[in-house]
Here is the input.
Amino acid sequence: MLQIEGLTKRFAATTAVDGVSFEVDRPIMLGIIGRSGAGKSTVLRMLNRLTPSSAGTISFEGEDITALRGGAVRRWQSRCAMIFQQFNLVPRMDVVSNVLHGTLNRHPAIVTLFNLYPAADIHRAIDILERLGIAETAAKRAEALSGGQQQRVAIARALMQDPKMVLADEPIASLDPMNAQVVMDTLRRIHDEDGRMVICNLHTLDTARRYCDRVIGMRDGRIVFDGTPAQLTTGVARDIYGADETFSEAATSTEIRDRADTPAEIAIRDAEALT
Amino acid sequence: MVEITPGAAQPSRRLHDDYMALVGRRRLYSGILLALFVALMLGGFNLAADRNAGGFWSGLPSFFDFPRDVISEAWEARAELPGHLAEFLPALVETVNIAATATLVGALFAVLFALMSTRGLAPFPRLIPLVRRVMDVCRAVPEIVIALVLIYVLGGGPVPAMIAIAIHTVGALGKLFSEVSENASPKPVEGLQSVGANWTQRMAFGVLPQVLPNWFSYALLRFEINIRASAILGFVGAGGIGYELRNAISWGQGKFDQAAAVFILLFVTIVAVDQVSTLVRNRLIHGGAP
Here is the structure.
């Protein structure tokens, strides 16, 4: 379904992505992990053609994506939705308008400038918002929403594109644990219910283990791990992050757990037991 | 796609209807605005055409007569062009000097006025309306009026022109600088306040680094405008290239080759300022790297 071969991105002095190759044969939920600067975002941006690649090929269902030019690039982008860490919505426009932006590639510019979207599209946008549980925000400005709601609007915009593939670049890095869980659950849902491929950059291991079917680890622009979540042991994680023995997952975990298990929380519990 | 249970159907229907009503209202408003705009443009055009002394449509074909005369005359005398360019260069330097001095002096005062008139940064918030009105006055009075008065008082020459342009620059740049500072983040300023910095220090270290690239490009844009303004003031006796242009541009003297030389010099100067502006601004934003 998706084949990536020797994908490389060189900036003036550095090589951000260095000969990345992998293949996905069916719509799965794929996680890419690695520390910041490992090249995860650049890979996703090259997939969406937001950033041009320096070398290598991307082919999706037999079509060479890297060879597309002009209008063909924009048609590809409309089939390959992208979700960003900072949501990248238009803050001063209302939620439904932001979701309708997912159809911009299908309408001539003049129609969209005069806000003459077909009524069917508007109804579908509200239906999608309803499905993601934020329909009551429909007429509000995007900037008035909380981070978690804004990210769900961004997912709604992506769904409006009706894409085969959804790319999510650190979708939960700006969210609190509660909202992070809602957003990750939503991404998993659009994979499970609609059968869309989801490729998700993540910076926390527990999220990758919990939500992804397959995990790719990147370090310094290269793939250093490619396997199932079960194979993602602490030792492997130390390799990916280039960390030593002091690296502990619990210290950076954002997962909401039933019982407290960080040293501080244990100390608090002990103190409360004494009183 | 969405499972609709009988209980949930009602609010969902209402959401759709409400939003569609909102869309309908918005479309109506934009339709009315568009119709109004077209009607005003057409009406205004007819009124202006009626009041025009010569008639707009009959005059339109001769629109390009003057530029054509200038270009054809200049082309015939193209051999003398290098000589004219050299001849007018000192006058151009004087004009650019007037503009540069006026921009520099105007920008310095504009910085002070801008900070005094920005909400959240002003040291005396009550003075904000007063400072703003002073800047309004600076902008409202045409440069040429100030220059004429000053030429009457101080005599002809570059100094009255410089002062006249500087006054206008204070008003124009002060407003633009103030709007830029209004969008600056208050967080660094708060950080500096928390360590006990005084107003001058807070502005110098908290605001200036944020706004400097924008201020700089506005100041250079103003410099371009001031070069043109200083050339115009030459018409009323402030010297510089405007004086030469007035002598050359009058119709029927056969001096259009000189006028063309003046235009070329002005054009090259504006392009040069624009290029330098882009270069310096990029350096300011990207911290030294080109």
Observations:
- Chain B touches chain A at residues 1-2, 12, 15-16, 18-20, 22-23, 26-27, 30 (CB under 8 Å).
- Chain B has eleven helices and no strands.
- The longest helix of chain B spans residues 6-51.
- Residues 1-8 of chain B have pLDDT under 50 and may be disordered.
